[in-house]
Amino acid sequence: MTLGDFRTLLNHLDELTFMETTGFPVPAHFHITEVGQLDRFFIDCGGTVRKTSKVNFQMYVDQDVDHRLSVDKLKGIIDASLQQLGLNPQLELQVEYQGTSIESYGLSYENGVFSFQALHTDCLAKDKCGIPDKPSKKKVALGTSSCAPGSGCC
Fold this sequence. Notes:
Elements: H1 3-10, E1 18-19, E2 31-43, E3 49-60, H2 71-84, E4 93-98, E5 102-110, E6 113-118, H3 126-129
Parallel strand pairs: 1-6, 3-4
Antiparallel strand pairs: 2-3, 4-5, 5-6
C-alpha cells in the first residue's frame, strides 16, 4: 500500500483500527510518533548497487490509555509530511511497531481495518549467486547426503 492509497482510504473512515499479524487489534490508544522517508543505499550479493525508498510510520503504544489519534489528526500529519518533507505519495508505506524488538510491516486494508502484513527478506541477485528461483524438491534418503565431502554445502 502506498502513502497515497493510505491517505485516500482515510477519507472513508471515522476511526482508526489496526490489526496485528497475530489477529489482535493494536490498542486504540496508539500514537503515530513519526512519519518519514527511509532510504536504503546498498550493494546486493551480486554486486549491483541499489537504492530503495519507503515511507515509514512509527507506531507507539504507551500507558496513556486516554489518547486517541483521530482520522482528521492523522490526515493532517500526513498532509504536513507531504508538504514539509516532500514525501512522494507513490512510495510504499511500512509501519514500525514495538514487538520483541522494533518490527516492520506492510499494510493491507479490508472493511475499515488496516492489517499488518509480514515482510520477508529475499536475495536480489539469485541469478548471480546460484540460488534457484524455486527450491528444488529433491528427496534425500535418511543417512545420506547429496553434498560431496569438502564441498562446504553441508
